[in-house]
Amino acid sequence: AQRVTQPEKLLSVFKGAPVELKCNYSYSGSPELFWYVQYSRQRLQLLLRHISRESIKGFTADLNKGETSFHLKKPFAQEEDSAMYYCALLIYNFNKFYFGSGTKLNVKP
Amino acid sequence: DTEVTQTPKHLVMGMTNKKSLKCEQHMGHRAMYWYKQKAKKPPELMFVYSYEKLSINESVPSRFSPECPNSSLLNLHLHALQPEDSALYLCASSQEGIRDEQYFGPGTRLTVT
């Protein structure tokens, strides 16, 4: 069963445009959600997590339990935001951790 | 040292070989992970060690055998692998457990012939 869905494989936007990377999850309990990012030729790294409620590099994500979503947003995309973005779900009580299939963000000049 | 290192970078092995992948971190983390990542797919969790004890085993075939000799080292012993086991194997570590930020290594690219 697909636990984390990222519907867009590729998202292309122009520099300065708003960007939203979608993430939906399947779990009726209390999930913990993360966004990980992989820049070109770099390692996978944590971008943000819902429990910290931080804004990192201008990105924010809000957990919406009603819509079971954790979409990643940035009001003004920069070229350096081009990367692969993975949404991840932790079901702590069952020791389960799932990555979504990833969305490649391409920010054009 | 704030990195997770993995050796080797690349490994080619036959189906009858025995080999090992190595992962090391010196950040004082007490949890370490193995992931498998096939081409154009997300990483899939295989094993988690927490305080040197195996805490998660995601029903991985026994031809993969993890070992955590101490809190800084994590090995993955490989034996009688199949061609479909060819993948990028990622190691990660975190402060204490799976709720914490994971720090990933660069991976070992494994090809089984």
How does this model look, in words?
- The complex is a heterodimer of chains A (109) and B (113).
- By secondary structure, chain A is mainly beta.
- Helix content of chain A is 0%, strand content 44%.
- Chain A is built from no helices and eleven strands.
- In chain A, strands 2, 5, 6, 9, 10 and 11 form a six-stranded mixed sheet that branches. Chain A has a three-stranded antiparallel sheet with strand order 3-8-7, with no helix packed on it. Chain A has a two-stranded antiparallel ribbon with strand order 1-4.
- Chain A starts with a strand and ends with a strand.
- Chain B is mainly beta.
- Helices cover 0% and strands 57% of the residues of chain B.
- Chain B contains no helices and eleven strands.
- In chain B, strand 7 and strand 8 (73-79) form a beta hairpin.
- Chain B is globular and about 35 Å long.
- The termini of chain B are far apart.
- The A-B interface holds A 32, 36, 43-46, 49, 86, 90, 92, 95, 97-102 and B 4, 41-45, 48, 55-56, 90, 92, 98-99, 101-106.
Sum up the structure in keywords.
heterodimer; A: 109 residues; mainly beta; six-stranded mixed sheet; three-stranded antiparallel sheet; 11 strands; 0% helix; globular; B: 113 residues
